[in-house]
Structure formats: C-alpha cells, structure tokens
Amino acid sequence: xxxxxxxxxxxxxxxxxxxxxxxxxxxxxxxxxxxxxxxxxxxxxxxxxxxxxxxxxxxxxxxxxxxxxxxxxxxxxxxxxxxxxxxxxxxxxxxxxxxxxxxxxxxxxxxxxxxxxxxxxxxxxxxxxxxxxxxxxxxxxxxxxxxxxxxxxxxxxxxxxxxxxxxxxxxxxxxxxxxxxxxxxxxxxxxxxxxxxxxxxxxxxxxxxxxxxxxxxxxxxxxxxxxxxxxxxxxxxxxxxxxxxxxxxxxxxxxxxxxxxxxxxxxxxxxxxxxxxxxxxxxxxxxxxxxxxxxxxxxxxxxxxxxxxxxxxxxxxxxxxxxxxxxxxxxxxxxxxxxxxxxxxxxxxxxxxxxxxxxxxxxxxxxxxxxxxxxxxxxxxxxxxxxxxxxxxxxxxxxxxxxxxxxxxxxxxxxxxxxxxxxxxxxxxxxxxxxxxxxxxxxxxxxxxxxxxxxxxxxxxxxxxxxxxxxxxxxxxxxxxxxxxxxxxxxxxxxxxxxxxxxxxxxxxxxxxxxxxxxxxxxxxxxxxxxxxxxxxxxxxxxxxxxxxxxxxxxxxxxxxxxxxxxxxxxxxxxxxxxxxxxxxxxxxxxxxxxxxxxxxxxxxxxxxxxxxxxxxxxxxxxxxx
Length: 626
Ligand code: SPV
Ligand code: MN
Prior knowledge:
Bound molecules: sulfopyruvate, manganese (II) ion
Radius of gyration: 25 Å
Number of helices: 18
C-alpha cells in the first residue's frame, strides 16, 4: 500500500476509524478517501460501518450541525435546503467526457479534464472546519445479484443520514469483497461548500454535479438538495444505466408494488411516472403493498423477469399528502419513528405543507426564512408559499404498515406488469394495455409525456416528453436505451405493459377521483392473468364497462355510471393524432438512432387512428370498438 496515502488519511483519522478503512484492504477505497482528504482538507475523517451506533452518531451529528432540527414527535426532524437549492438542477449536471470518447450530443456534458479541474477548484479546502464522513452502502439487496456497493464521502450529516434511511448498509459487503480484484463499486464525493447562517450552501450559482462515468464516480458541490447530493439516488442511476448496458440488464426509474388479486394471488407491478404524476400514491394504494417507490433494477433469474427495489426508504413529495388520499404515509408521518421532513413549514414543532387538508399557520420557519410570514417575498422577489412545492419526507420502507414482507428479497420479485403513467388533460384514457412488449415499450414508454411539475426547476405546466420517465437520467442516447429495453429478456415471458393517465379533464374538471387508480390497478392485475376481456381500440386494449362497474363497487364501493365510463374512455382522435405528430417529429428528426420498430408502430398507430376517424368520427365511444 502506498504509504503516503495512508499517512494522509492517518493524519485526520483516529485509530478506530482508520482501522475500519484499513480492514477493507481495498486500494481503490483508500485512494478515493486519501484524494478527498488531501483535496478538501477536513478537520477530521469519520468512517462508518454497518452498526446502529454509527447510524445514531450520524443522526445526532445532523442535529448538532443544525442540518436537521428536531420536531415535536420523537424521531422526527426537519431539514432545510437553500432557497435556490430546492430541486435537481439539470443545467449544472454534466457527464465528464474523456478525450477520444463521444457521448450522445443531447446529453449535458463537458470535457473531462476541464470538469475535474473545475470540481477540484470548488472542493479544494472546502471541508476546513468540517468532518468528512465516509460511509458504505449498497444499491439493491445485499448479497444479491442486484447489489451494487457504493462509497459515499460527504461533509453533510443530513446526506449521510438520508442515505442510512434510503439504502442498505454496505460496509460488510466491501469487507467480504476485499480479496476480489474485479470488485466494482460506485463512488460519490459531495461537498456542501461555504454555508450561510442557516447552514445551507451559500454559493448556489457554483453548484455542480459532474459524473465521471469512466471511473464510476460522481462529484457534487455547493448544494444540499438530496437529488443532487445523495449519491445512491439519481447520481447512481446514471451510472447504473451504463453498467446495465454493459452487462445486459435494466436500471429503471420505477416503483415496485404488489397488487393483490383474487384468492390471495400476488402480482408484482412496476411503474414509471414522471415526478408528481401519481407514482408514489400508486405504489401506496390502500389494500395493496409497497416494495419501493422510485428505483428498480430488472434482471432475468432462472428464466423469470424479476425486479429488485434499489432502495430501502422513500424520499417522497409531501405536497398533497393527506389523511384521505394517502392514509398509510399520513400515519407514518404522524407516528414516532425516524422521519426527515424537507422544506416544509414548521410552527411550534409541527410540520405543515400545502395540500395537507389542514389550515396552515401564517407564520413559522421554512425554506425562505426562520421567521417566515404569509406574504413574504423570496430573495428573488418572488411570492413564497408556506412549504415548497417540492417539499419532501424521508422514511424507511420498514416503517410503512403496507410494506410487502418480501420487499428485501435478494432474488427480487417476479414482475407481472409494467405501467407507464403520464399526465395529460386531453389525450390518453385512464388505463389501457399494450398489444405487445414492443408496442408497450414504443407507444407507452418511449412516448411518455407529462405536464411539468415542481420537482425540476423550470416552467411548470408545459407538456414534456420523458422517455420511461428516465429522460433526466439517461447516460446514453435515447435510441440505445430503447434498444436495450426492446431486447431485454427476449427469450422469456415478459410482463404485460400498461399505460395510465390520472389527469384527464373535461371543461376544466378532472374526470376521475383521486382514488380511481385503485380500480385501474385491480383491472391491470386481472389482465396480467387474462381473467377479464378487453376492448381492442387503435391505441391499445381498454377495459369493458361491466368489469369496471364491478371493480368500482368492490374496491371503492362506488356506483360507476356508463356516462362516466364513456367520458373517460372515449377515444379522442384529434388529440391522439396530434400526439403522434409530436412523436414523429421527435423520433424521425431529433432522435438519430430510433429503433425501426418504433417508427413502424408510430405509423401503424396513425393509420389506425385515421381509419377510426373515417369510420366513427373524431370522438369515439368505446362501444364502437366492441
Ligand atoms: C424525482 O424527482 O424523480 C425524485 C426526487 O425522485 S429526486 O431525488 O430529486 O430525484
Ligand atoms: Mn424519482
């Protein structure tokens, strides 16, 4: 071992923590830590293992550092990110491309050596006066073929605490692999940067998230928002998509849930929905069971299509979480136990957020100010809200009473169906099934669109194309990613594919209730097993009225009228044709390597819509196709 490197670490590390590192007997780990220490110059280095004591140390440090503030309920804390640091920032998130390599030109990228130089300049001596935390985690269940070990360096106890809730601990995984020369792991180096009086990153305009895909490493600086800092979340997803490409599996931005069918049948479903399109609330439908709400890896095991939850917790949007719509989350958010609230309003030790169905105080502490008052303007002069629209909660899956007991299965879970859920007010029916895997991947997944929301920075309410809801995280061209999806698990029975849209409107009013998705999921569950028939339309297979009428009665104890059905499942041909036009434009000119099958499916779909228009007019009742 390189004595100089060891000495650098030793100079900042007490014996116990140094031993934890040395015991791993891994030169890559030592190099990464030593380089970080030398560059960032922390006062000391703390190394965590998988013990509860170490987890407790981090929790307390987050409070001592004032990165988290305890709330009235035991175990609950609140964390605030800077006013300008409330979401992922796409413009400053870039791939570092080495000389001689090329990345798809649509990916945000910069020259590798220049990027590294920039990050080093921003991180140099930036941990002075702070503790550098070194923690080991695992993406996916430990001791499984899904597992990807990760090393996180951060000077934020909030980041390390969040990771402890959101991921499996991985120190022992590293230890077991100490003699494996091919041991591959992901590395993250996050530095908070200069902080203001509220301990939030001051230099938000110097925020950078740079991904060195050649080294499985991501650097992040001058930010605290978890989507930019928690290495195992979206930073790792980009690396995982490349690793999956090399190894022949898929890394997806999807929930995993268990839908409960007749006679105790368990059917696992995965779903990709852009932010704020009902992803978490689908995974949390009362009566069903959650496995995970954000990230899934797909692999074939013994000829079965299986998915594993990458995470062990949820970092969810809190806006509109209320007792009626999300009873299980609501309960966990009001029970003793570990919960981090992010960017909510706090008054008298109690967190408040928009859409919680309670009257909100007109003052308190929030992301704008420690003494926020209604009407207060932000530092940019904009109106402020009591809680941020992208305010979040962090909790552990194990603390949810509706968790699937098998959520941590090292072999993952067999997938019966995949759902692509968009948000549009005028085009797609609430639920439909694809004609085939290829049709589902191309017409539902690849053509997924959503009106924008608050989780990413930029204008809201604009219709945006978001392939598989994975667009922000693609680390290769759209065409290559779609080819990988089309080719995956070719020789085995693949899940059925479905599309949902909970946001259809008529005269400005939503056509569906918040809970109707519970019915669509039951219908999907039945269709996975071919228990009910469906109607073939140009855009896919849709439910029959009788089946939905029965399901609405059984699931929601609700009378479902033929009129509602007609309004919801009417084929809107002009809007569908417009969508096809948008997609033709994208896939024939913007995307340079569109799969041929996609272009074919697009043309077929257009033709079917035109034929239906000639036969039945522009707005067609489902009965026309029966
Ligand atoms: C999302 O926006 O898709 C999230 C939250 O899951 S973030 O961590 O910002 O990615
Ligand atoms: Mn997400």
